[in-house]
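Let us practice reading a record.
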Amino acid sequence: MIRRFLVVLVTALIVSVLTFDGAGAQGSGDDTALPTPVAEDLLEASKAPASADRSPSDGSSPWVVADGDLVLPADLVVERPTTEWSDFVQPFTGAGFEAVDGFAGNRGMYWIRLATSQVVSNAQVESLRTYAEISAQRLAQATGGTYRVASGIVDLSDTGVDPATAEPVQGEILIVVSNTSPCAAGWIGCGGPQSSITDPNNENDRYLTSGKVWIHPSVLTRSFDDQLHVMQHELGHAVGLMHFDDPFETQLQMMHSSSLEAPAYRNGDVNGLTYLHPAGPQNNAFASATTLAAAGETVTQITFGADTETGEPNHDGTTSGSSVWFSWTAPKSGEAQFTTFFSNYDTALAVYTGSTVGGLTLVGSNDDYDSTSLFSLVDVAVTAGTTYHIAVDGVFGDAGVLVMSVLEPKEGQMTPVAPVRVLETRPSNGSTITQTGYTGAKPGAGQEIVVQVTGNGGVPAGATAAVLNVTVTQPDANGFLVVYACGQTRPTAANLNWTAGQTIPNLVIAPLDAQGRTCIYVLSSTHVIADVSGYYAREGEQLNTTPPSRLLETRATNVGLGITQTGYTGAKPGAGQEIVVQVTGNGGVPAGATAAVLNVTVT
């Protein structure tokens, strides 16, 4: 056999199938390119409905064929000569299948979505749902993975995005009915994987994470069996299968390039799908949990292929079963924090004590840290020497790049509380506004507002500082406010600046006096709102509050306007400029400080 090489610079893998001419005599068309090296995308398909942005990132189709109508035989090697990668991607030949090689496999969990079409009605698109659902069931049966068909149709009609060039989001296989595709002339179906993710612990391993399928409108008039075959075949391409034209176990396979004989995935196809399915993480089982350092640690890993085990509880109500496990032994008593911040999928986190997966006691759990986040955070009181077992599951069976962190117990670290309003100066209106922590008319120019923080919203007596979201609304004139401990000299640096009529918030670490109060000074008459979301305890506090002090002022000195250029010399910073700010040694920040709370303003 003669091995041929083709060097191409391409952006996505395309494998076309089932071409025909005239009355339907099948030929073979197969156009192949490679998956774009996509950066880790925070948008996961489980939370990406029709509103997700599926426009091509460069304004054009990301799908590029290898060489026009070229039919790529199974032994072709395709090199991708980019500066980022130099690996070879070639078909892997297995028992009855060919698969995209050079990857660790696919993600094993997909949402399959139908999209609007520019050539047929939504009702005609909807007619494909039955074939998609049967195909999804068969993919799941063959691999043990999770394949779901989402309800509804992704509406691209008002987005200006051509369905033929729309890009699927991470974790999605997008199906469009179109009379155009990247595939060879005469195609009736086309499909392939589109994006991939790098394993953070092994840069040579990449996982296929999304795919796309094009269905020619002529397919909608064909028989039930033909439509089902085309759907299964193209979804096979979308998860990484290539054509296999030789008989296997005396039968032609679903992934044959031109035959419609196979009614379902046959043994060779199943072998290929199994080959592409991720093996699963090392810490998939309770008994093989990853041990986290007692002093605190952040671990990043891929969770594709994770599942559940007998006796495992549902974690924070999640029933999908795609969990991984960690263990951690508390070095001392106190409050420890566990988070999945910066993971790229929707997580649920639970912390347990116990020695067996079927005999665990829940200590704390969380799905979403807040109403806008997919991350999880659990704060729990821990006892020195006790081992805690941490499970991270994927909501809706999702998986991806997990960032798992534990912070060792520290007395006085910030303790989050559910946001509670501690100040509302606007008058009560009987429905949406209740004046809180204040009595009277709109605060006047130069007024100091005293806010009682401790005793409200779960902030205990003895707290030395509070995390406040301070909002100004309906100001009569330009101005600023300053937040400081009552009874202390008012600092000269502002926490918030505004223009007349503006509504603007800012996050403030507010120092508290001995009575648990903070004071807010307003330069001009305005209403002020403050919500508390956390506090710092008195002993061993990790945050040391100082009076606000200006460390950086790039504007030129203007005595009349009260501006003094500080910590910087020169003209307005230019585009792309890096500004170095000296923090320690200024404003009461001592040498040895490792972080600072800054109010940064651009003007």
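A brief commentary: Residues 129-143 form the longest helix (15 residues).
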